Amino acid sequence: MKKITKATFKAFVKKHREELCVRGSRSSDGGFAKAKPSTLDQPRHTRGITGVWLVGGGRDFFAKYEDDLYTGISVGNCCGCFIVAIRK
Predict the structure, then answer these.
(1) Is the pLDDT of residue 27 over 60?
(2) Nearest CA to 31 among 77, 80, 69, 79?
(3) Are 21 and 70 in contact (CB under 8 A)?
(4) Pairing status of strand 21-24 against strand 33-34
(5) Which residues lie closer than 8 Å to 25 by C-beta, 6 or more apart?
(6) For 27, what's the count of Cα atoms within 13 Å in the CB-facing half-sphere?
(7) Nearest-10 Cα torsion for 48, 13, 21, 49
(8) Residue 26 confidence class, pLDDT cut points 50, 70, 90
(9) Buried b (16+ CB within 10 A) or exposed e, 6-45
(10) What are the Cα distances from residue 23, in Å, to 16, 29, 50, 52, 57?
(11) Residue among 53, 73, 78, 77 at smallest CA distance from 63
(12) Is 85 exposed, middle or buried (0-12, 13-18, 19+ CB in 10 A)?
């Protein structure tokens, strides 16, 4: 299995921007929601998506995510964790 890196994450987000869903560690219902544009002026950290926050400096940890309905990438760092995914 290919290692998931920040470059893999960025490519996945760019390729699937229109169909991307996000699930954060602070989701009230624990489910995925359609990705919304971020209102923060931090594109390097948010990739322009609400619920996404990368800290950089090798402190983001990436893993493959897959369940019955979604496939994507799980990200963890000192700010929490989130998943970006698309429906299968």
Answers:
(1) no
(2) 69
(3) yes
(4) antiparallel
(5) 80, 81, 82
(6) 19
(7) -10
(8) low
(9) eeebeebbeeeeeebbbbbeeeeeeebeebeebeeeeeee
(10) 15, 10, 10, 9, 23
(11) 73
(12) buried
d(CA 72, CA 86): 6
Of 36, 35, 52, 87, nearest in space to 66 by CA: 87
pLDDT for the residue 52: 92
What amino acid occupies position 75? V
Tokens linked to 72: 């994507």
Structure tokens at 24: 């954060």
Alpha-carbon distance 51 to 81, whole Å?
A: 9
